[in-house]
Design goal:
This protein is of the alpha/beta class and about 400 residues long. The chain is built from 13 helices and 16 strands. The strands form 3 sheets. An 8-stranded parallel β-barrel has the order 4-5-7-8-9-10-11-12, surrounded by 4 helices. A 3-stranded antiparallel sheet has the order 1-2-3. Bound molecules: D-mannonic acid (CS2) and magnesium ion.
Length: about 400
């Protein structure tokens, strides 16, 4: 069996999805997601110029060897662009494998370990009452877990993922449009004084059963994060996410020594080497890698297995930057993984997105149910794809009030 061709599409409804389609001499094709948020054309170019020419003629069933070929062959290892490109190929090869076996991918991993995978939604508010309304809407829809992000009084601009004005009813707020980044102003002091009380009020209002998550988005220093984590302990968060920028893995010790709040990290990681110490030293509770950014199913499955040895559960990234293909790859891993924790979930199911990526996967009452279609269980409509074109975007940058550059 041979790979006869591969095409890359960039574009989508409101997002520049990078979609790879690998074709074979047996008529079976595979699909993969290579969307690297706000740097989408780079993965596409890497695939087109360097990887696809080598793929032609390879046997698509040898997904492990193909992964090693590209990873070792790059010489300059890891990095988000390369790993997202390998991720797209790997996902597409697993899709082909599943279609050849006529089995959904979770069956190839070891079958189902649960009936449905718990997801969490994004509640946001310009202020606390606005946030409470947003949480209530998700609770009414049956969500069992909600991430809460709140505007901070006195903060000069809206901070990470919160709207400027109350009543916007949006579940995810970040305007990435334009090449020149938008700017946000941040003040850790105001945040640390306000947010623990806000979290406590949310717990009081919604009771003990709701799983409450919060994302610090890399904004605190290790000592501040330790203080914050200690203070929010009574709220019994499901997790506290990215309290510090996680490239300093040892910094996490400080938080651990002061608090038992569960820590989730990893959405910016792209290999097992970015998180092996965090996992082996049991400094985190949830690993947040995404199947696209971290080199595909082959590599992420290794991370999941390592995590399982150390009581670390999965909490895969699921921001809208990932296409339904990545979300499907994650859904199959979530159905199988003995150490599954939770899945981040933003409503992708707009009619436009469903038309571009038809699938029978479904979310109901806060649980994601993976379909039994062979492979990833998501298709791609090329005619629909022709409607969209690439639109440049950038992540915002963050400064302190005196102008010092900080972490988005
Ligand atoms: C966020 C992300 O979903 C999350 O937890 O931290 O939305 C992140 O800001 C974006 O994916 C950046 O591309
Ligand atoms: Mg996050």
């Amino acid at each position: 069996m041979k790979i006869t061709g591969a095409k890359v599409f960039v574009g989508g409804p409101g997002k520049n999805y990078v979609t790879l389609k690998i074709e074979t001499d047996q008529g079976v094709y595979g699909l993969g997601d290579g969307t690297l948020n706000n740097r989408e054309t780079l993965t596409a170019k890497y695939l087109q110029d360097y990887l696809i020419p080598c793929l032609i003629g390879m046997d698509p069933r040898n997904s492990e060897d193909i992964w090693q070929y590209f990873y070792r062959g790059a010489y300059f290892r890891r990095g988000p662009i390369a790993m997202a490109a390998f991720g797209a190929i790997d996902m597409a090869l697993w899709d082909i494998k599943g279609k050849l076996a006529n089995l959904p991918l979770y069956q190839l991993f070891g079958g189902k370990s649960r009936n449905g995978a718990m997801v969490y939604a994004h509640a946001t508010g310009a202020d606390l009452p606005d946030l409470m309304d947003s949480v209530a809407r998700y609770v009414d829809q049956g969500y069992k877990a909600v991430r809460v992000q709140c505007g901070i009084p006195g903060m000069p601009t809206a901070s990470y993922a919160v709207p400027e004005q109350a009543g916007s009813n949006t579940d995810y707020i970040t305007d990435f449009s334009g090449i020149r980044p938008k700017e946000e102003i941040w003040d850790s002091g105001r945040y640390m004084r306000y947010m623990p009380g806000a979290l406590a009020e949310i717990r009081d209002r919604f009771g003990p059963d709701l799983h409450i998550l919060h994302d610090v988005h890399h904004r605190l220093l290790p000592r501040e994060a330790a203080e914050f984590a200690k203070e929010v302990e009574p709220v019994k968060l499901f997790w506290l996410e990215d309290p510090t920028p996680a490239e300093d893995q040892d910094a996490l010790r400080m938080i651990r020594q002061h608090s038992t709040v569960p820590i989730a990290i990893g959405e910016v990681f792209n290999s097992i080497w970015d998180c092996n110490k965090l996992i082996q030293n049991e400094l985190i509770d949830f690993i947040r890698v995404a199947v696209t950014y971290a080199g595909g199913i082959t590599h992420v499955k290794r991370i999941v297995d390592l995590a399982g040895l150390h009581h670390v559960r999965t909490g895969f990234h699921g921001a809208p930057s990932h296409s339904p293909l990545c979300m499907a790859a994650q859904a199959h891993l979530n159905a199988w993984a003995p150490n599954f924790g939770i899945q981040e979930y933003l409503v992708l199911g707009t009619p436009e997105c469903d038309a571009l990526f038809p699938s029978a996967h479904k979310m109901e009452n806060g649980l994601f149910h993976v379909s039994d279609a062979p492979g990833l269980g998501v298709d791609f409509d090329e005619t629909e794809a022709a409607r969209y074109e690439y639109k440049a975007g950038s992540h915002p940058i963050v400064r302190l009030e005196d102008g010092t550059l900080w972490n988005y």
